Amino acid sequence: MCYNFYLRRRKIAKLRYRQIHVDFHTSPLIPDVGKDFDIEEFVKTLKNASVNSITVFAKGHHGMSYYPTKIGKRHPSLKKDLLGLICDRCHKEGINVVAYISVKWDEYIAEKHPEFLQVSPEGCFYTSPLEAGWKQICLNSDYVKYLYSQTEEVLLNYPVDGVFFDIVFQLPCICKNCLEGMKKEKLNPEDENDRKKYADMVEKRFLRETYNLVKKIRPEI
Asked: Taking the C-alpha atoms of 195, 197, 201 and 202 in order, what is their torsion angle to the nearest 10 degrees?
């Protein structure tokens, strides 16, 4: 028992506790993104604040990537590899870098592939194209393959110390894939509880697959 406690203490001791989450979901309409970014000033600020771990964006809610992606859509006005620049310079100062990847909210893909969107029990998209708000992408669609390819791209090309998957939830959905999935699980799509049960199953499956994907490529992070 004491030995197990010792192992848990050692595992906890490896975590970085001065963690900063840099949050910027930048519309593709915004010009000159990163134009005046000064990496030296950025790292100096982190060091002065005793920061030893930072989350920076690989992809935000607009679906824009902050590195030269071959899978997704690079922010049109970004002229530098922001993720790579921060990763390289922070590591030289002993600062961990965690890559942020937006999951359910990806406006670029939502507009390009409306078939990936979740359908409410009323037969409508959860967010109307005429309303302000993030579109709800179904985690039971082929979008997941796209997201996994983006994740692989980040893990294989950047020595990140972790991945922050954000906005991970599945609303009750009656899109074609979810209707077929409920049928296979012998669930009734007309039943509210069964719709919620299947949504929970989809969400948990996504979590398992994502965890296994990351650990297969980079088991140490």
From this structure: 20
- Which residue is it, tokens 């708000």? 133
As beta bridge partners, residue 47 has none
Q: Cα(10)–Cα(7) distance, rounded to whole angstroms?
A: 5
Give the tens place of pLDDT for each residue, 181-203: 999 999 999 999 999 999 999 99
Distances (CA, A) of 116 to 26, 42, 59, 73, 125: 22, 37, 18, 17, 10
d(Cα 185, Cα 206) in Å, to the nearest integer?
17
Indicate the SS3 state at residue 166: strand
Contacts of 176 (CB under 8 A, 6+ apart): none
CA separation for the pair 135, 127 (Å, rounded):
6
pTM of structure = 0.90
Residue whose entry in the numeric block shows the structure tokens 């985690």: 139
34-79 confidence digits (pLDDT tens): 999 999 999 999 999 999 999 999 999 999 999 999 999 999 999 9
User: Residue 181: which of 208, 209, 207, 200 has the closest Cα?
Assistant: 200
- Helix, strand or coil, per DSSP, at residue 108: helix
Amino acid residing at 213: L
Q: Tell me, what amino acid is at 62?
A: H
